[in-house]
Amino acid sequence: MSEKRALRVLIVDDYDMTRTLLRIILRGQNFEVVGDATDGAMAVEMCQRLKPDIVLLDVVMPKLNGLEVLAKLKALNPMPMILMVTSAEEERVVAQAMQSGASGYILKPFNTASVIETLNEARERFIVRSAASVNRVAPNL
Question: 7-133: what fold?
Answer without folding.
Answer: Rossmann fold (3.40.50)
